[in-house]
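During the reporting period the student researcher (J.K.) took over the structure-prediction task from the postdoctoral fellow and processed the backlog of single-chain submissions. One of the processed entries is reproduced below for the supervisory committee.
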Amino acid sequence: MATAPLIGISGRTRTAGEIDLKPRSLQACDVDLYFCDYARAVLAAGGLPVYLPTSADPADYAERLDGLVLTGGADIEPQRYGQVANAELYTPEPARDAFEMALLDGAARSGAPVLGICRGIQVFNVHGGGTLHQHVAAHAGFDRPSTRLHSVKLAEGSLAESLYGPSIEVNSLHHQTIDQLADGYEITGRSDDGAIEAIEAHDRPWIGLQWHPELLDSRDTDPAFTWLVAASRP
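J.K. obtained the following structure tokens:
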């Protein structure tokens, strides 16, 4: 039997008190959090998901992992792309920023494929030297995480188009979008209003999606996760 590729999944660290975890005597303790739908999508695609605690040295993961998912979550610290924080910025998590940037450094060295989702596509862009729109209110659909709210047109000949076809209806759980695109990437998907919804690296197997495929009803057959696992096989 073929060995399932190991797919690392990034998460976030909170205190037990921040998520109201009982008992109260433990509320100062750190807790690593991961949304299970990412792992379920990896499993459905034939991979073996591995949660990546931020307490470890991210460089140590590079030689062990076959692929990587950068997940959604907090806003990236604007200082990383040369801006002052907007009043609408959600609370940044600098330690997570540093951890995920280092994960990408490791993936670049190892050649591992990476799927960036929501925050993940933004991490790609900032890692590469690009910038973000800090607040785009029209794109937030947090009250309907699994509802397809708008369409994304995908560039002909792109990896995204080969996975999803010329367009796809998607959900929207973000209030930030890519502004200036980083060198080394091309835009391969835009929403109806022109917002960047998909990017791909020129010389690496990295694709970023602004929507959340793991929360849609097509999760277990989602082409991006299928691609990631297939590309991660030794």
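The committee noted the following: Residues 7 and 67 are 5 Å apart (CA to CA).
J.K. will present the remaining backlog at the next meeting.
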